[in-house]
Write a structure and sequence with these properties.
Layout (H helix, E strand, L loop, with lengths): L2 H4 L4 E5 L4 E2 H8 L4 H10 L2 E3 L2 E3 L4 E2 L4 E5 L16 E4 L3 E6 L16 H9 L4 E2 L8 E7 L2 H12 L3 E9 L6 E8 L8 E2 L6 E14 L2 E8 L6 H8 L24 E8 L2 E4 L8
Parallel strand pairs: 10-16
Antiparallel strand pairs: 1-6, 2-5, 3-4, 3-6, 7-8, 8-10, 9-10, 11-15, 11-16, 12-13, 12-14, 14-15, 16-17
């Protein structure tokens, strides 16, 4: 049986019994072609003793090998990365992140992400300071130096960074401050509660205004805390799931799981202010 053909999302685990090359070991364990193996090396989908490897190398007896045999792929080749740059200074740049691409490396794919692709395009390293979910678009700041990365992270902790988003929903959310409590879990969808508890994280956002757009509502949202999936889960909890966000009960419409109707529209800190207008027609 070919494990790769019968486990389309498989993460496979092995222990090497003796010395030898990684490539020979994997070929002995799996029905895998040389080009397929080269692709997995390129993407960083193979680990030895929990360390990512990008090329064939020697294995020792009892080495632990993990292979993500079907890494998730992202459409990075469809993006003109230079055109995403909204602003650039000596210490950071702000881009309009395209939907459908992660900000940073994932466990099974280390190169098809915003930070890597822009670093390769510009010829210097970039450092992640904030995150947007894969299907979310809009303003994203990346540091050009480790010092600025630390400085911006401090601004975030001190709540000296203001972030606004716009979202499309079929139902109109109630204006004002909304506080919920998110269960600590790595899984999605996130589970919210109205009551605090030791195993929950506080989530706060403010619906600033809502504009009718035909049968939809466009809401401007001030994100106060920054939890994973926070806006998506809170709007869903309010009975207003975001268009396209099937994970949280949103209808697909012109959007889908690769791009939901959530866009980072405003980012400010110190004397800097950046604005991006969503183009919902590209959903």
């Amino acid at each position: 049986m070919n494990p790769l053909s019968h486990q389309p999302s498989a993460t496979l685990h092995f222990l090497a019994e003796s010395e030898g090359t990684l490539a020979d070991f994997l070929k002995s364990q799996l029905e895998i072609t040389e080009p397929a193996l080269d692709q997995l090396f390129l993407l960083g989908s193979i680990f030895i003793n929990k360390n990512r490897v990008f090329s064939n190398q020697m294995l020792q007896a009892h080495d632990y090998v993990r292979i993500h045999s079907f890494p998730k792929r992202y459409p990075v080749r469809n993006v003109d990365w230079c055109s995403t740059i909204h602003f650039e200074s000596e210490s950071f740049l702000v881009i309009n992140k395209p939907a459908g691409i992660p900000v940073h490396a994932t466990l099974d794919n280390s190169i098809e992400n915003v930070a890597y692709q822009l670093s390769q395009t510009l010829g210097y390293p970039l450092y992640v300071t904030q995150r947007l979910d894969v299907p979310v678009s809009g303003l994203l700041l990346l540091a050009k130096t480790l010092n600025f990365q630390s400085e911006f992270n401090r601004f975030l902790r001190q709540k000296k960074v203001t972030k606004h988003y716009k979202a499309l929903t079929h139902n109109e959310p109630r204006h004002g401050l909304h506080t919920h409590y998110m269960e600590k879990s790595p899984w999605a969808p996130k589970v919210l509660s109205l009551e605090p508890s030791p195993n929950h994280l506080e989530c706060q956002l403010e619906i600033l205004q809502t504009t009718p757009l035909g049968e939809l509502f466009e809401s401007e949202i001030h994100l106060i805390t920054g939890r994973t999936h926070q806006i998506r889960s809170q709007l869903s909890f309010l009975g207003c799931p975001i268009l396209g966000d099937c994970t949280y009960g949103g209808e697909v419409g012109p959007f889908n799981s690769k791009k939901i109707a959530l866009h980072s529209t405003f980012l400010s800190f110190k004397d800097f202010k950046f604005i991006s207008v969503p183009n919902w027609t590209e959903g």
